[in-house]
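Notes continue from the previous slide.

Worked example: a multi-chain complex. Inputs as given:
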Amino acid sequence: MLFIHKESGLLLAKVQKEQEALQDADMLASMMTAIRSFVNDWVEANNTNSELGEIEYGGNKIIIEASGYSYLAVIVEGAAYAKTYTKIRNTLENIILEYGKEIKEFTGDFQIFPNKALEEELNLLINNNNKIQKKKKIHPLIFIFPLLFLVWLSYLFYQDYKDETLAKQIQILLQETPSLTSFRIDVDVDDAVATLKGSVPFEYYKNKTQKLLKSIQGVKDIHNDIIIIATLTDPMQVSSNIAYLIRGVNLNNNTNLTYSFDYNTLTLKGNFKDYKIKKRVLQEISRIQGVQTLQDETKMLIPPFKDVNIYFDTASSALDSSTQAELLKASQAIQGLDNNTTIKLSAYSDMIGNINLNRKLAKKRVQNIENFLRKQGALSNTVISQIFETPPPGIDAQKEPNKARKITLTLQNKSN
Amino acid sequence: MLSYKIVLVGNFGAGKTSLIRRFVENSFSQEYLSTIGVSISKKTIKNARVMIWDIEGHTEFKPIFKQYLLGAKGFIVVADLLRQESIIDIHNHIKLCNEVIKGAPLCIALNKSDMPHTLEDKELQIIKNSSELIIEVLKTSAKNGDAVEELFLKLDKKIKDNMSK
C-alpha cells in the first residue's frame, strides 16, 4: 500500500506484507503518478470528469483512491471485494482528516512529516483487509462438516426407518398371536434393539412374547420390560382372560362351554362330561382377577354307564385279572362323575351251603370290590351295598350256580 | 531523510537520458519513455532520496507534458551545445518550469562537451544571468562524465538549502 504525494509522486508512506515486500516502492510511486497524470490528462482532454481508479495487470490490480494532495495506491492480489474499496476509502478519509495539513505542507523532509503515524493508520487497513480476506476465504474442509452432518442425518433417518419397520413388524406379529392379542404390549425399537413394555397376568405370556420376537430377523437384542401384574382389573383384560381360559377348556376337553361376563358376574353355560374338569375350570375361573361372582349354569352330562357284573368262584371272594380290568375301567368312568353319584354293589348268592356263611362271603366280596375301586381310582364316592340271599333275578341257582355268584355294580345319582 | 523530485527538460536529442544514465547506475523502465513520455530514476544524494524524472524531449509537434513537472523541487534544463536552436529553447523551458513550479531552482546542462564546439565560457555566464532561477550553467559530457555529478550536486545543494529555510 503506497501513500503517494499527488503532484511529485513522492512516496509519503508505505505498508506491505513482509512476504510480499515491494521492490523500489519509490520508483513505483513515481511511475504510478506519471501514469495517473497521463491518463487523467487524456480523460480530461476528452471532457470526461473522471480519474484513473484502477490498474489491472496479470490477475492483480492497483486500486487508486485519490484525495486532495495525495492518493493511495493499493496493490491487491486477485479479486478485491466491495468491502475492500470501502475500507480503502474510509482509511484515506481518516488520514486526510487527521493529517491533511501536514500532507498539504509536505516539503520532502521526513523528519517533520508524520509518515510513521500514517503507516500505522495504513496498517490498520492492511490488517482489517486481511480479516476480510480471511473471512471470505473458505477452507475446503469447511464443506466436509455439513457433508458429514448430512451423511450422519441420512444414516439416522435410515436407522429410524429401519427401526420403525421392525417395530411395525413386531406389533403385527403380537396382534396376530391369539394368546397375546388382548394384552397391551408396547414395542419400541432403537438401533434394532427392541424394548417391550406392558403388563401381562402371567410369566408365561412374558416369555412367549420374548420367544416370538426372537423369530424376527433383524432384532439384535430384546429388552423385556413387561411386568406381571396379578391384580388386573381392566375389564377388557379380565374378559380376555376368561375367553382364553374357556377356549382352552373347550379345546382340551371337547366341551362346548359358553359364558357371558358383565364385568362383574361371570355366567358359565354348557355341559361337562367330567366332574373333575368342571371342578378344575371353576377353580381356574376363581383365580381370574376381576371376576366378582360366578354363576354356574352348566350341566353334568353323565355318560351312559354300563352296569358291571362280577362273578366269583365257589366260596371265593378273590378278584381275577379280567374282573380287575373291568373294575378299573368302571372306576375311571366313575371318576368323571360328581360326588353325588353313589356306587351301588348288589351281591347275589348261589344258595349253596350255610346262609350265614354265604352272607359273610358276600360281604367280603363287596368289601374287596370297594377296596379295589378306592385303591385304584382313589374314589371318594359313597359306596352302598345290598346283599341278597337269593340268586339274581331270572337265574336258576341250581342250573347256573356260577351266574348266581354275582355282584352287580350300578350307579345311583342323588340328584337324579 | 529528505525526498524530492527533479525533472530534466530539454529538446529532443539533447542527451537528458544519457546524463541520467551516467549519474544513476540503474534507471527505471527506459521503455516507458516513448510510451507515456516519462522515465523515472532514483538516486540517493547524501541523505536525500532523489527521484529523477526524465521526460520526453520537446519537439515541434509534441510539447512537453506539463503534468510531469508538478511537484518538482528543481529542474535541469538540458541543451545540446552543438545545436543552436537547442540553446535558444533553454528560455522556453525555463519559462515552462517557472509556470508550473514558481521559483524552483534550475541547473542548465550544455551537454556533449566532449564533442568539438565553439561555445565560450562567457556565453555560459550570459545564459546564467538570463534568469534568477538558474543556479549553475555547466558544460557536461554524458559520454565521459564531465561535470555530470557536479550538475546534480549543485542542484541538490540548492534544493536542500531551500527546504531548510
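Summary box: The longest helix of chain B spans residues 148-164. Chain B has a mean pLDDT of 87.
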